[in-house]
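dude i think i finally got it to work??
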Amino acid sequence: MQNNNLLEKESNIKTIIKWSGTLLTLFLFFYLLQKQNWETITATFQLLSVRIIFAAWLLTIVRIITNSFRWQFLLRIAEIKIPFFESLKLVFLGMFISNFLPSTIGGDGIRFLALTKFEKDNSLALSSIIFDRLVNVVAVLSLLPVTLFVYYENSLFVYDMKVIEALFFSGLSDKFKTWKISGRNWINKNKFWFQHPKALLSSISISWIGLFIYFFGIWLIARNLGMSIKYYQVMGIAVFAYLITLLPISINGYGLREVTITTLYTFLGYPIEAAISLAVITRLIYLSTSLIGALWLPENLSYLGKKIPNIK
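look at this
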């Protein structure tokens, strides 16, 4: 009983930290907005082509479909039989729920509960979702050398990034310790995942395809905003921004992602108005695609309502 109370208290503290972090970073971002020349920002937005925005939106959809293929690939390893369209609906549903719950874990939790309609083994269903997220993180981390190259090709950028790097690595150091312990236990319980190395490499390759598509969409918008930025620079910044949002101090990266993107593009020498515009537009594109998940919320509500009180 005492352990349950401690766990509940720890969970409440983490939630408070995430809400506080979200509010703080949103405040900082809106503070940046307030200090800018809105005539310039408006002029920057007017540079945008509707066709470019629509193309970026479609590329985001393609990336989500690609991620669904990756998860479907992992589900086959676990011999969990679920039609592709059903798994795609669950991915969209998880994205939609993540907009309202602390971190992206909330969306994964709903995805797990909905998956139990197709797989009665709860631990197997949960491990497929955990491994799907793990594969994506590995794919992103494998692109970290691109980020480092972007950092070190500009000495001023490296100097200014020291504070952010210190924040990032100090913030994740404690988390890595927890991951090391829980990860070791999880690997021991799920050794069968590692008995299919070719399938796992294929899953990482699918993640790369999705990431490259996503980066290309951002690059199109950045170029349309007047930035003479190279594709690999967009990759480097996007990878770092993703890793920053892994810090457990924000809800779905709100504010934290926008401040990070604005800061990084500004350090590279691009106008802050263009950087802010890019951060806002890419966030709106993500939100608009995640709203598609609301279409399949009603059909899952009754099942989830019955499942949540009984899940172990």
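The chain is about 80% helix and 0% strand.
im so relieved honestly
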